[in-house]
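Action item from last week, closing it out:
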Amino acid sequence: MVRANPTTIPFIMIRRLLPFLVIITLVTVFSESAHAWRLSNSELRRFGFAGTYRGVVEGDVLTRDGDRFLNTVVSQSAREVLPVPNRDIVTGPTRRNGFFLVLRDINGNKRRLTVRMYYSGKSYNPIYKEEMAGSGFKTLRVTRISASRPRFEMLLTDEFSERAVNGGAYYSTWDITGRLYK
């Protein structure tokens, strides 16, 4: 039986892994950087992400009616515009009170982009006769589909909930997703 010298074992392992390490190094060096960084509105325009995106969104909107919730199924056309404003006022599901939609950050590179926003604020709802606190988030993920004649796809995720400031009971909520194109 032949025994391996303990000092030659690392060299054998390196020799076996060397082709794999060379391939990984070449792919990393010659591929476009996939690192994301914070983008400005001028970079959005320069990379081609700015503009109007249209598509279909689907989801559920729940509104409180006494002790139960009414579920409204949403399936409709939608429109999103990039760049988004730093702060906007959005009405809640009952369309009687407004909350802030605040831009959190825009990260991405030449191929991908992620816009994160969040809902906040307090507002009096005349239907429920209570002051409500709004919370939630909205995320837009945009991907460049082709390079020669760029086409962009946006995945939208929008979750919002409205609850009473006193007691914390939920009164309305929405959960909407969609796919939009430019």
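Closing note: The longest helix spans residues 9-30.
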